[in-house]
Amino acid sequence: MSFYLLIKGLLNRKVVTALLLLQLAMTLALLLNSILLAQQTHQQLNQPTGLDLDNIVLVQLKPTTASLRVYPALEELLNRQLAAVSALPDVVAAAYSNQSAILQGGNNGNVYLDGEEGRSNQPSVPMYFVSKDFFRVLDSKLLQGELPQQSVSLDNPVPPDVVITQSLARQLFADKPAIGQQLNRGRLAAVISDFYGQRSGTNVMFNSIQVAPPFGVDWGYSILLRTTPGRADVVRQRLDQTLRAVEPNIEIFHIRSLAEQHQRLYRNEYGLAMLLAILSALMLLVTMVSSYSSTYFHALKRQQEIGIKRALGASKNTIFIELLSENWLCTAVGALLGVMLALLLNQALAQVISIPALSGYLPLITIAVLLLCVTVATWYPAAIATRVSPATATKAL
Amino acid sequence: MEQFIYYLKVSLKGIKRAPLPYALTIFILSVGLGVFFANATFYYQLNSDPLPDKSDKLFFPMINLVPYQCTTDCRTPRVLSYSNVQKLSQSDIPSQAAAMYSADGYLRVNAGQPPLPVSIRITQRDFFTMFEVPLLHGSIWPDNSARHEVILTRASAEKLFGRTDVVGETLLLDDRNVTVSAVLDSWQMLPRLYDANNRNHLTDADDIYLPLETGYDMNYLSNSQSSTFDDTDYRQLSTQGRTGALHQLQYWVQLDTPAQQQAYRQFMHNLVMDEKAAGRHPSEPNNQLVAMQDIVSYFGGDSSDIKAFALVTLLFLLVCLFNASHLSLNRYLSNQYEFSLRRALGASRSQLQLQMLADVLLMAGFTIAGALLTGYAGIKLMNQLLPANRLFSDWDLPLLLGLLAIAVVCSYLVTLYPSLRASFGTLNQQLKE
Amino acid sequence: MIRLSNLSKIFRTELIETHALREVNLQVNEGEFAALTGPSGSGKSTLLNILGTLESFDSGDYQLDGQSVTGLSDAALSKLRNEKIGFIFQSFNLIKDFSIYDNIELPLRYRGFNASARKQRIEQALELVGLHARRDYLPGQLSGGQQQRVAIARAIAGQPRILLADEPTGNLDSLMARQVMELLEKINQQGCTILMVTHDPDQARRAGRHIQIIDGQLHDSTLYEPLAAHSA
C-alpha cells in the first residue's frame, strides 16, 4: 500500500476531499464536546451528597386553608402528620422541615459569628427548621457537641440552638473549638456530617439547622422519611392516603425519593447532554453515509482504474485495503483538524454553558470511534468495488 | 405549464435511475434542517419580543436603597421593598407604573368546594394597560388602593364557574371573601418579561390578579423571591413589611421618550442622594434603569442551553449541507452523460436551467416534508429533555415561512453547484468522456 | 510457456448459452511472437482475458510457465499476473491522474520492489520506449502513440515472461502504429513472449506465428518463418 499514491489520489479530488475533511473535523469536534458534557453531567449526578438518596422519601405539601397555616393549629397538624407517617410499616424515622435538602434554592440567609459579621459572614446558607428526628432521617453523623432534643420556638427570647454541617464549621471556625460559640442564628450546639443543601449556595454542603417549628408555611413544607432499605417505593404508595386521612385540607405537591429529587435538580444538564449525544449519533450517521457514498461513487467512477490495477496485479484485497486506507487517511487528517476545531468549539461553548476543558485520552477514544464508524460504512462499497471485472473494465470504451 | 410538468417528469426519472443517492441526499438534508428547525423554534420564540412597540419604553428601576453597607456584593437587589416602591412612585414622569409580585393561594367558590391552587399576581392598576392585557368582562380597579376584588383570567373563570361572565360573583381566596371585578380575555405574554427574575419569564402567566395593597394586607409573601435586609418579621407583612427592608417587589414604569427616560434617571439620582443625605442609603449609589428588552440578560436568565445547542445545530446543518451537496454532485456526475446528450440534441442552457429549477422544487418538496417531520420530532424530544422551555415550542406563521424559505434555499444550494457543473461543462469533452 | 488443453468458456444468461471458446488447445513457446486474429465476437478477447487470468474458464486446463492456474486464489492469480504477464490494451488504460512515472511504477509497487529498484526499472523501461523526457507528464498531455508506448513501458517494467496485447495499434494512425509494432518486435527479440490480438493482416504477417480464431475454435495455426530471419 502506498501512502504517496493515497495522498496523491486525495489531492486530485480537492473539493470532495475538503468537504469530507471539514465534515469529519466538525463531527469529531461535536462528538468530543458532547462526551465532555455527558461526562460532566455524569460526574455531577454522581458527586457525593452525604445522603442515602434511595431510602429517603420527600413529601412536599401545604395546607389549603388559611387557618391551618397559623400556630398553634399548624404545629398540631405537623405533629399529627408525623405521628401518622411514623406509624407506617417500613418507616424508620420521620421529620418535618420547612424545606427539603437537594434543592436549587430555597430558604437561606447569612450565617456569621456574633460580632464578627464582616469577617466571618457566609451568605446564602440554607436554614432548616425541623423536628428533632430530622438528623435520624438524614442519618447524619454527629461530629461534635450534642443534638438538640427539644423543639424551641423561633420567637423564644433565647433562639433555638443551631446545628451546622462540617464544611460550614470548618469555614467559620477553622480548627478552633466551635461548640458553644454564638452565631447570629443562635448558640452552636452540634456539628454534623455534610449533606447536599442548595445548589445555588456558595457551597452545596453548607447547612444550618434548628429544631423549631417553621415560621410559616406559605411556601409549603416537607415531610422527610427514612425507610428500611429497598422499601421506599412501598412507603411512597401509602403516603398520599395516610396524609389525607390525617387532614384532608392539604395539597400534596409531590412525593419523591431524594434520588429522584437529585435527578430533577440536574435535569437541564442531563437534557442538554442527552440532546448533544443524540446529535452526535446523528452526526456519526451522516458521516457514515458520506463515507459510504464517497467510496461508492468513487469506486463507481474509477471502475476502469480499478480494473487496470487488477490487471497489473493488484489482488482484491489490495484494492479493498486501498479504498479503506483512503478513508482512514481522510479520517485521520479530519480527526486532527477536528481536535483543533473541538478546542475552538469547547471555548465557544464555555462562553454560554459550563463545560470542562478538553484534555487527556478523550480525543483518542473519539478518533477511534470515528475510525470504526468510517470503516463500517466503507466496508460494503469497498467490497463491491473489488468485484469489478478487470476484463470488462479495461475493455471499456 | 405542460412543459414544466415534463421537466418534473424528467427529474423523477433521474431519481428513479439512482434512488439511493437521492434518498440519502434528502435524508441528510431533512435531518440537518429538522434539527436546525427544532432549535431555531426555541431560539426564535425565546428571543421574541412580546411587546414590540413598547419593549424599549418599559423600564425596571432598581435602587440600592437598603439598610446595610455593602462590602463584597454591591449589586443592586433584584427586587424592591414596599417603601422603595413608594419612594419611586412619587415621580409623575412615567405615563404608567405598576409594582407587582406573585404568590400562591387557594381559591374556591364556597367553603364546600375543593380548593383550586392558583398563582396570584399581586399588582396595581396600570399593569393591564402597560402590558396590553385584553379585558373580556367588567372593569379594572379604578385606583391602587386596597379592595377585596380579584380579576380572573378567562381560564380560571371557566374552571371555577364554567362560564366567563362572572363579574360581581364572590369567591373565597384563602378563606377570605373577594369579589370578581373583571375577567380577562385569553392572554399570554411570552416570554413573560415583567417577571424575568429566577427565569420566571419562561413560565405561564398567573391565574388571578389582586391589588397590591390587599396582597400586603393579606400577608401574601412572594413565591419567587423575598429577602429581608433587617430584622423585619416576614409574617408581619401588612405592618413591618410595608416599612422594613423586606424586598419582594418588581416595579415597571413606562417612559415614552428619551427625555422622559433621562428625567427619570435624574429623579432616581436625586432620590438616592436625598436618602443618602438622610443616612438611609449607606451603600454607594448603584441605580439601574433596565429596559424590558434587556431585562433577561440583565438578570442572567439567557437560555444558555438553547444558545449552546444553537451553535451546535448550526454546525450540524453546515455539515449536512456539505454532505448533501457532495452526494448530489456525485449524482449529477453520474447523470452527466445524459445532460450532455440533451444539450447535443439542442437544449439551450436556459432550458437546462429550467430543468434544474424542477429538480430544486422537487428536492425542496421532499426536504421540507422530511425536515418538518424531523423538526416536530426534535421539538417533542426537546420538550421532554428540557421541559423548562416547553412553552416556547410553537410554530407560528412567520417562523414557519422563514423555515420553509431556508429549506428552499438549502435545496437550491445543494442542487446549484453540481448542476452548474453539469450544464456549463464543455459539451464536447463530456460526450467524449 | 502457454499450454491450453481442451479449454472451454461458456457465457450463460437466463435465455441462452454462448460457447465463447470450445475445447481450445494451444501451445505458445517461449520467445514466440504470436498474432491472434478473428472476426468480432469470435472469442479472441475472451481467449486473451483467460490467458491473462482476468477471466475464468469452465473446463479444460491452462498451464502458464509450467504451472496450472486452475484453483489458484485471487491473491495467487494477482501475483502471477503481476510477475509474469504484461498487458497492453487498445485504449492504453493509463490512469489519467497519475503521471507517466507513477503509471509505470504501479505494478512495481504491487510487486513490492523498493524505491531504488523501482526507479531503476522505470528508467530502463522509459529508455526503451524513448519517453524519458516525459516522465512527469500526465497521460492526457501525450499523443496516442506516446501513451501506448507508456503502456508498453508499464507492461515490461516488471520484466514479465509474456506480454498480452489487445489490438495495441487499434486506436493509432499508421505511423504511430508502425512505431509501436517496432517496439514490440524489439521487446520480443529481447526474449519476451508476445501474444497480440490484431485486425491488421499486415501486422499478423509480421508476427512469427498467426493464430486464427473463428466461433470459439482455433481454426488455423500457421507457423511462419521466424521474424528474426525477415528483418535481419
CATH fold-level label of chain C: Rossmann fold
Number of H/I helices of chain C: 8
| Largest beta-sheet details of chain C | 6 strands, mixed
Q: What is the element string of chain C, with H for helices and E for strands?
A: EEEHEEHEHHHEHEHEEH
Oligomer: heterotrimer
- What is the overall shape of chain C? globular
Question: What would you give as the CATH superfamily of chain C?
Answer: P-loop containing nucleotide triphosphate hydrolases
Average predicted local confidence, pLDDT of chain C: 86
Q: Strand fraction band of chain C?
A: 25-35%
* Uncertain residue segments of chain C: 224-232
Q: Biggest interface, which chains? A: A-B, 51 and 53 residues
In the CATH hierarchy, the architecture of chain C is 3-Layer(aba) Sandwich
Low-confidence stretches of chain A: none
In total, how many domains does the architecture of chain A comprise? 2
Give the end-to-end Cα distance of chain A, rounded to a whole number of Å: 29 Å
Count of discrete alpha- or pi-helical segments spanning 4 or more residues of chain A? 13
Average pLDDT of chain A, rounded to a whole number, is: 89
Integer-rounded radius of gyration of chain C: 18 Å
CATH class of chain C: Alpha Beta
Classify the helix fraction of chain C into a percent range.
25-40%
The outline of chain A comes out as elongated
What's the helix and strand layout?
The complex is a heterotrimer of chains A (397), B (433) and C (232).
Chain A lengths: L2 H10 L1 H33 L9 E8 L9 H14 L4 E7 L10 E4 L5 H4 L1 E9 L3 H5 L3 E4 L16 E4 H8 L8 E2 L2 E7 L15 E4 L9 E7 L4 H15 L3 E8 H8 L1 H35 L1 H9 L4 H37 L9 H25 L3 H6 L2
Parallel strand pairs in A: 4-9, 6-8
Antiparallel strand pairs in A: 1-10, 1-11, 2-10, 3-4, 5-8, 6-9, 7-8
Helix pairs in contact in A: 1-11, 2-9, 2-11, 2-12, 3-7, 9-12, 11-12
Chain B lengths: L1 H16 L1 H28 L11 E5 L17 E2 H7 L7 E13 L7 E8 L3 H4 L4 E4 L10 E4 L1 H8 L8 E4 L2 E9 L23 E4 H6 L9 E2 L11 H4 L2 E9 L3 H20 L10 E4 L3 H4 L5 H41 L4 H37 L11 H28 L2 H6 L1
Parallel strand pairs in B: 4-9, 6-8
Antiparallel strand pairs in B: 1-11, 1-12, 2-11, 3-4, 3-7, 3-11, 5-8, 6-9, 7-8, 10-11
Helix pairs in contact in B: 1-11, 2-10, 2-11, 2-12, 10-12, 11-12
Chain C lengths: L1 E11 L4 E12 L4 E5 L6 H8 L7 E6 L2 E2 L5 H11 E4 L11 H12 L3 H15 L14 H14 L4 E5 L7 H16 L3 E5 L3 H6 L2 E6 L2 E7 L3 H5 L1
Parallel strand pairs in C: 3-8, 3-9, 6-7, 7-8
Antiparallel strand pairs in C: 1-2, 1-4, 4-5, 9-10
Helix pairs in contact in C: 3-4, 3-5, 4-5, 5-6
